[in-house]
Write a structure and sequence with these properties.
Blueprint lengths: L17 E3 L4 E6 L3 E2 L8 E8 L1 E3 L2 E4 L4 E10 L9 E10 L5 E3 L2 E6 L5 E2 L5 E2 L7 H13 L3 H14 L8 E2 L4 E6 L3 E3 L14 H10 L3 E4 L5 E4 L2 E4 L2 H10 L3 E2 L5 H13 L11 E2 L7 E6 L6 E13 L2 E17 L4 E6 L3 H14 L5 E5 L7 E3 L5 E3 L4 E5 L1
Parallel strand pairs: 18-28
Antiparallel strand pairs: 1-15, 2-4, 2-14, 3-13, 4-7, 5-6, 7-8, 8-9, 8-12, 10-14, 11-12, 16-17, 16-20, 18-23, 19-21, 21-22, 22-23, 23-24, 25-28, 26-27
């Protein structure tokens, strides 16, 4: 979803007039809320470009560029068997200095959404009668055929724990989406370029990155797992403030309470932005920090674990992280539990994290360090394939 070239295209300089080819994708973050029950045809909305769009070796649309659109159609689900529909049009882009141009674009994806986007770019909602909450009701109804007393007890317990699923399409400011240009765009706008420099001394940084362990280990069962692909240079307070500014949430610790809330989120088919993450170890230590970005489903999320490492670099604390994008949930026969499936191309998640942090304007230095010892292919502890160029992105606050 996020272009890895964004880590290698230079960040300095101004954008010049350019023709942006059809097919170029723009990564957006909503600035206004929209919904199938709360919006009506003709309502306008705004979003902002959060990752530079690259064509060839050039940045053609910079971060901070505004996208203005309108709601073409909004239909709520009138029954438990119907889908809500939200159809969006994207009308123009604008920069901070007043440059504007009409655009022709189609919605391609909603990030980490329970809804789907059809070939015409319409957002189709979930069907309430097919959610976990509805299936629980269906199971209780079957029990009632033979054991009405037990069914009544189960129904009371279910209502106390699980709420009915709201099948409406509701996107608050901060929800992210991808649009694809359907026609080429003549764009003369400019964008404020972040003041991000290289990190030196480069040779010393390369030695540091290559000395760090490159693979985590699952706690239960103890198997090699995620690849470390990010390093942060800064204080804990700087890390926390940057991720919060980028819209990421700290993950809660695994506990009876967080496990119950996870179950409820799955049954109600909704998000849980502080959902716990499984424990992975680095040098036999659990992570010091964990962050995630969730929309409206527990099944999909961006997330990463961060470990404090010994020593300093340039006087700053060193942190190493493994980041992956959860894209769905499956049942593991081996572990007898539900597990997340990940996007195997973990370099895309590395770029996502870097782009989000740069957008906050809190990043002062950036590097992409080769690590020849890191294998290009591997597997995590739950059997998902991992594909990577092996490099580590280093972010200095």
């Amino acid at each position: 979803m996020f272009n890895e070239a964004l880590l290698t295209v230079g960040l300095a300089g101004c954008l010049m007039a350019a023709q942006v080819p059809a097919g170029t994708k723009l990564e957006l973050r909503l600035s206004t809320k929209i919904g199938s029950s709360t919006s009506k045809a003709g309502d306008t909305f705004q979003a902002v470009v959060i990752a530079p769009a690259v064509a060839g070796d050039s940045i053609v649309v910079g971060t901070g560029t505004k996208v203005v659109g309108h709601v073409k159609d909004a239909k709520p689900a009138d029954s438990a068997d119907q889908q809500a529909v939200l159809d969006l049009a994207f009308d123009r882009i604008e920069d901070a200095k007043g440059a504007a141009a009409p655009i022709s674009a189609r919605l391609a994806a909603i990030d980490n959404a329970r809804e789907t986007v059809d070939k015409d770019g319409r957002i189709l909602g979930i069907v309430a009668s097919k959610t976990g909450s509805a299936r629980l009701d269906q199971g209780i109804n079957k029990v009632a055929e033979k054991y009405p007393g037990l069914a009544e007890l189960l129904g009371t317990a279910k209502k106390a724990i699980v709420s009915e699923t709201d099948a409406s399409i509701n996107y608050a400011p901060g929800v992210e989406m991808t649009i694809e240009l359907t026609r080429s765009l003549d764009w003369t706008g400019q964008a404020t370029v972040p003041d991000v420099s290289s990190i030196s001394p480069a040779a010393e940084l390369a030695r540091l990155a290559n000395s760090e362990p490159f693979q985590t280990r699952a706690e239960k069962p103890p198997k090699p797992s995620d690849i470390t692909n990010l390093m942060f240079l800064g204080t804990e307070d700087e890390l926390v403030r940057a991720f919060e500014a980028a819209g990421w949430s700290p993950a809660k610790q695994l506990s009876a309470e967080s496990k119950l809330e996870t179950f409820r989120a799955m049954a109600e088919d909704r998000g849980y932005k502080e959902a716990p993450v499984s424990i992975l170890l680095l040098d036999d230590r659990p992570p010091d920090l964990a962050f995630e970005k969730i929309n409206n489903t527990f099944a999909a999320r961006h997330h990463l674990r961060i470990w404090r490492r010994p020593g300093l670099f340039g006087g700053q604390p060193i942190w190493v992280s493994s980041s992956t994008h959860d894209t769905g949930i499956d049942f593991s026969q081996e572990n007898r539990t539900f597990i997340h499936k990940i996007d195997s191309y973990i370099d895309r998640e590395r770029a996502k994290v870097v782009n989000d942090l740069i957008f906050t304007r809190m990043v002062k230095g950036l590097a992409l360090v080769d690590r020849p010892a890191v294998p290009a292919k591997g597997y995590n502890a739950t059997g998902d394939q991992i594909l990577t160029d092996g490099r580590m992105a280093v972010v200095r606050f």
